[in-house]
Amino acid sequence: MKKLDLSRNEKQTVEDALQHWQENNLLSAEQVEALKGNIDEKGFEWKTLARYAFWIALVSLVFAVFSLFADDALIRFVERFYETPNIVFCLFFGALATGFYFLGFRNKKRYPDKTFSNETLMLAGAFATAACVGFLGQVLDRNTSHFTLSFLLSIVIYAVLAIKLQSKLLWVFMLIALGIWFATETAYHSDWGFKFWGMNYPLRFTLFGLLVTAFSLWGQPKIQRLQPFQSTSYVVGLLYTMIALWCLSIFGNYDSFDSWTEVRQYHIFYWGVLAVLLSLGVALYGMKTKDNATRDIGFVFFILNLYTRFVEYLWDNINRTIFFLILAVSFWFVGRWAEKIWRKKDAN
After folding, report:
1. 2-21: buried (b, 16+ CB within 10 Å) or exposed (e) per residue?
2. At residue 70, does pLDDT exceed 80?
C-alpha cells in the first residue's frame, strides 16, 4: 500500500479516528497498526518553496532592471550605448533568447521533473524574444506607424517555439501577443481612435475572447500539434472574455471617458445583466462537467459582477454605514459558503 504524506495535524486526526474505530470494535488492533504504518508525517513543502523561489527570482530580475536605470553611475554607463544601432540590440537579445530556449529545452529533456527551473528559462527566453522583436520593429519600421507587424512576428515565433518545445508557458505568451496584436491592429485601421467598426476595446475583446474560446473547443482538438495546448487556450480565452465583459458592464460601448461620465449606470444596465448571466452560466457549466477551472472562473466573475453592480447602484443612494454593513454581511455569507465547499472537498 502506498504511504500517505500528511501534515502533523492531519496525521494526528487520522490516528485519533483509527483509535476511535478500534475502541468501537470497527477495526482490530492489527489493522490499526498496519494503517498507522502507512502514514508518514509530511516534511517540508520543497515544491512550494521552489515555486516561490523562482517567482521571487523573476521579480528580483525585473527590479534589478528598474534599479539599473535608477543608479546614476549605471545610467552614465548605459548612455554610452545610445548611439548603438538597434540592429545590434536586436541581435543581442535574439542570441540571448536562443541561449535561454536551448538551455530550457536541454534541461527539459534531461530533467523533466524540474518543472519550475525549466519554465523559468522559457520565461526568460520569452522576454528576450519580446525585446528582440521590439528592436527589429524599430529597424524595419522607422518611418511608419504600422508597428503591429512586429507583434504578428512575435505571435509566429512564440507559436512555433511552443509547439517545438512543448511549452504551455510560451503558448500563453503567444495568446497574450495575439491579444496585443489584435488591439493595436484594430486601432491602426481606425486611425488610432477608440472605436473600430463601432466597437470600443471592451466590446472588441469580449468578441475576441469568445473566438479564442470557441476555437479551443471546436477547432484546436482537430489539429494534432495544437491538442496539448487546448486547455490553455480555453482558460485564456475564457479569461479574455470575462475580464472584457466585466469592463464592458462598467464602461459600456462608449468611445471616450467624457461620454461615459455624462450617462448614468442604469443606461448600460443590460451589459451588467449579460455579465452576471454569462458568469453564472459558466460556473454552472463547470459544475455540471466537473471542470474546476471553468467553475472557479465563473464563480469569481459572478461574485465580482454582483459586487460591481452593488457598488454602482447603491454607493450614491444609501447611507454609507448601511452600505458597508450590507457589504460585511454579504462577504460573511460568501466566506461561509466557500468554507463549506472547501471542507466538503477535504472530506472527499
Report:
1. eeeebeeeebeeeeeebeee
2. no
